[in-house]
Amino acid sequence: MYEKRNEQADTGVPIHPLKSLTREQFAALGGDAVAYVRPVIGFLLAAIIEDADFEPNEIYQLVMSADGTPLLVTDTAESVNDWLSDKNLGVATLH
């Protein structure tokens, strides 16, 4: 697969600087200020967090830091909201 992310587009116009960031640089933009929330099925979650048991067909709510570190796993969005209520984090949802 070929990506033009670090080169100029065919039009000769430079690509936006954010598109040339490495994964590490992009993750550092959020630092400790951004958390991402997404639903994830148990069997996939078990591959991310190996030292915990999850029901394979259950949907969980996963909260991760910008660098991809899992911060919280819970079974309801309400629990996520309760946990985030006393944290100083911006929240982004993943699609």
- What is the tally of beta strands? 4
Beta-strand proportion: 25-35%
Oligomer: single chain
Helicity level, as a percent range?
10-25%
Largest sheet composition: 4 strands, mixed
How far the N terminus sits from the C terminus, by CA atoms, comes to 23 Å
Q: Provide the gyration radius in Å.
A: 17 Å
- How do the strands of the widest beta sheet line up side by side? 3-2-1-4
What value does the average pLDDT take? 79
SSE class:
alpha+beta
Number of discrete helical segments: 3
Uncertain segments: none
Q: Element order, helices and strands?
A: HEHEEHE
Shape descriptor reads globular
Would you write up a description of this structure?
- It comes from Devosia limi DSM 17137.
- InterPro entries: DUF1150.
- This is DUF1150 family protein.
- This protein has a domain of 62 residues.
- Helix content is 24%, strand content 25%.
- A hairpin with a 4-residue loop joins β2 and β3.
- The protein is globular, with a radius of gyration of 17 Å.
- 5% of the residues are buried.
